[in-house]
Amino acid sequence: MGKLIMVRHGESEGNAIRRFTTSGEAKITDLGRRQALEAAVRIKLKFKPILVIASTFARARETGLIIASELGIPIEYEEQFREMSLGDLAGKPYDSIANDPNYDPKRSWVWRAPNGESHEDVLKRVAPVLDAVAKKYLDDEIVVVSHGGVMRAVWSHVTGSWENAHVPPNCGIVVIEHHGGRYSKPEVIFGETPASETGG
Hints:
7 strands, Rossmann fold, globular
């Protein structure tokens, strides 16, 4: 049985001011670096991963590097694990979503920012890559460092439902066991309270 140890990146510059980032190169803050180190310690106490796979966005790369360094394991990068594009809302406050007349909080996963992606779009690009990682590392523990929107999509993919899909806080950890191409229900290891927004 393998395990996917899903970690949301540490606090980013955008998270700190509650605005959607305008670039994939937005970095993590000092708090974000501390969160990444704490996540690494939590992982070390419970698991024995052999590899970190991180999104190519800077905030996930930095978080992944801290975790990989602390655990003494290699890191790779996967472009498809990047955060959902917010299109024209880049740089805008988080609460600007609620001002979009097309946003339905009861079906938030279908909402798409102008010139951006929906959570369903994210699921379509993330699911095949996640499945490939699980297939390649059948009996290994792998850390995947990504984003709130990606982790929400992954939760939906492995459970078959968007309802109550968990969005962890910065450096929240969700573990998904897999065996023979089948996923177990995700287990929240750290970050029980869902975030109020994905926010990158």
